[in-house]
Specification:
- There is one protein chain.
- This protein is mainly alpha-helical and 517 residues long.
- A hairpin with a 3-residue loop joins strand 5 and strand 6.
- 45% of the residues lie in helices and 9% in strands.
- The strands form 5 sheets. A 3-stranded antiparallel sheet has the order 3-4-7.
- It has 22 helices and 11 strands.
- The longest helix is centred in the last third of the chain and has 20 residues.
- The structure holds one RNA strand of 75 nucleotides.
RNA sequence: GGCCCGUUCGUCUAGGGGUUAGGACGCUGCUCUUUCAAGGCGGAAACACGGGUUCAAUUCCCGUACGGGCUACCA
């Protein structure tokens, strides 16, 4: 009785999609691809109080950026539409009623206020209040009220919820694909609200009903759901759906960089790291964030990094494309312990992808950043710059800064280095070289190198003496690509003018007193 | 507090009754080199603790400690 694999990613549009959510989506996607199954997106927007406009669009856009397009979902439709829970409320209501009819659920009239009072009371007595088999007979519900009274209240439209009637003294076991058998004693499980007073289902009801109706075969979700899985199994049993109950796989949590708790949106600001895939413009600055994209990450690198947070293929290979991940993926390789978010490792993955990228492709990725700081350079020139800078980048956003002197004029000069290396003889030397260089037939790196070397040889100076001067004159800094490569990219004219301007500038600089630090 | 889950270098992890406990990030040394990177070659660095079981436990079992999650008419 093996059914075609169907998995779902079921986020709640209460804000931007957290990076842990992206990982959950990724694992679901990989599992679906691995088994030739279907990956669907279901939007769990049953809490109108926490609904945030724009969040669903954000989720969709994030998945698209990552390349994790759902096979079915609100946008792409599918045989089980609608895929937005707010559009399915009659389905849940009917199912909740069905449970009442079966005696597996009941109506409850207790108000949130009265329940809160009970909780407070219990807390002061040093215990915890729980709406369960022990307490429900002392509360206001269809189990304790006369049938006529219940009917009257319901007919009068009195606020009421439907609760699951958890059986006492039983044991529920789940065979989790990641953790093995997990057992719950029903005496520890409360009578969860299934249908809220506003007619909307809670997660527990909606989730089980939809997973069943949408023929979900595997539920791959975060570990925070493990404690309520007992309820979920009870629900499948109450509906008589045990035979097609999905298998569960609970993923380890992604922890804060310091390991103290699960990663949350506030950690972005706290640790100076991205925790969202894309930027999010909230209502306030504190609620607005830059994402991995805005930090300069490639989606493929983010995915690769995320895949390895809680999973590994069991080999030494670390760099995987999305199809490769899908081929290698398996649930039994998922680790059990929480994984700390390691920003250095994330950057390393990005760096690896940047290194492996063709300059022409890199140029298209880097273009927006270049434009953002006001540089306009031709495609061919940008590609050349990318070729030289590729190995020095770990983020796309590094390029405009590190290659500033190739994209535009030299803006910053390392005065300390100039003072150290520029002496009274330097000017004559550099100007003489500039003269030689302007006569070079073909202005490319190889030819230039030859010219400069013979120039140095003729003058009897060491190349190591000359190069730093050229580098400083051309770039203003001691860091960067090979000088001859820079020259080629800069071109004959720019090299000539930079050399001459630097002579003026450096002479003056060296003559002036160093600033007190 | 109760319930559930977890624990191999600082971090992500491989491994599994007998191993020099492997890899990666980070750190670090050397090398390459006109600089900075990248690359190459090295180095330091781990089985939480206590009991069992066993000829043998880091590996299996039980405790303890520590960490995490859940404990809403939120998901």
């Amino acid at each position: 009785m093996t059914r075609p694999v169907r998995v779902r990613f079921a986020p709640s549009p209460t804000g931007p999609l957290h990076i842990g959510g992206v990982r959950t989506a990724l694992y679901n996607y990989l599992f679906a691809r691995k088994h030739g199954g279907t990956f669907l997106l279901r939007v769990e927007d049953t809490d109108q109080g926490r609904y945030v406009p724009g969040a669903e669009a954000y989720i969709t856009e994030s998945l698209r950026w990552c390349g994790l397009e759902p096979d079915e979902g609100p946008e792409q439709g599918g045989p089980f539409a609608p895929y937005r829970q707010s559009e399915r409320r009659t389905v849940y209501e009917a199912h909740a009623q069905e449970l009442v009819r079966r005696g597996a659920a009941y109506h409850a009239f207790d108000t949130p206020v009265s329940l809160e009072a009970r909780r407070l009371e219990a807390e002061q007595a040093g215990t915890a209040f729980r709406y369960d088999a022990q307490t429900r007979m002392g509360l206001e519900n269809s189990l304790t009220l006369p049938a006529g009274e219940v009917a009257r209240r319901l007919a009068a439209g009195e606020p009421a919820v439907i609760r699951l009637k958890v059986p006492a003294g039983e044991t529920v076991a789940v065979e989790d694909l990641v953790r093995g058998q997990v057992v719950f004693n029903t005496d520890e499980l409360d009578d969860k609200v299934l249908l809220k007073a506003d007619g909307m289902p809670t997660y527990h009801l909606a989730n089980i009903v939809d997973d069943h109706l949408m023929e979900i075969t595997h539920v791959i979700r975060g570990e925070e759901w493990l404690p309520s899985t007992g309820h979920h199994v009870l629900l499948y049993q109450a509906f008589g759906w045990e035979a097609t109950m999905p298998r569960f796989a609970h993923l380890p949590l992604i922890l804060k960089p310091d390991g103290k708790g699960k990663l949350s949106k506030r950690d972005g600001a706290r640790f100076g790291i991205p925790v969202f895939p894309l930027a999010w413009d909230g209502e306030s600055p504190e609620d607005s964030f830059r994402g991995f994209r805005e930090y300069g990450f490639l989606p493929s690198a983010v995915l690769n990094f995320l895949a390895f947070l809680g999973w590994n293929p069991g080999t030494d290979q670390e760099l995987f494309s999305l199809p490769e991940l899908a081929a290698a993926f398996s649930l039994d390789k998922i680790s059990k312990g929480g994984a700390r978010f390691d920003y250095d490792k994330a950057k390393w993955f990005n760096q690896q992808y940047l290194h492996a990228m063709e300059p022409a492709l890199l140029a298209t990725w880097v273009r927006p950043w270049v434009r953002a700081v006001g540089y306009e350079v031709s495609d061919s020139r940008l590609q050349e710059i990318c070729r030289l800078m590729k190995d020095r980048l770990s983020l796309l956003s590094d390029l405009p800064e590190q290659a500033a002197y190739l994209l535009g004029p030299v803006r910053a000069v390392d005065a300390v280095q100039v003072r150290k290396r520029w002496d009274p003889t330097s000017r004559a030397l550099v100007e003489a070289l500039a003269g030689v260089l302007s006569d070079v037939a073909v202005f490319d790196a190889a030819g230039l190198e030859e010219q400069v070397k013979s120039f140095a040889a003729e003058r009897g100076i060491k190349i190591g003496q000359l190069m730093p001067l050229l580098r400083l004159a051309l770039a203003g800094t001691m860091q960067g690509p090979m000088v001859f490569d820079m020259m080629q990219v800069l071109g004959r004219e720019a090299v000539r003018t930079r050399l001459h301007e630097a002579c003026e500038h450096f002479d003056r600089l060296v003559a002036s007193p160093p600033e007190a630090v």
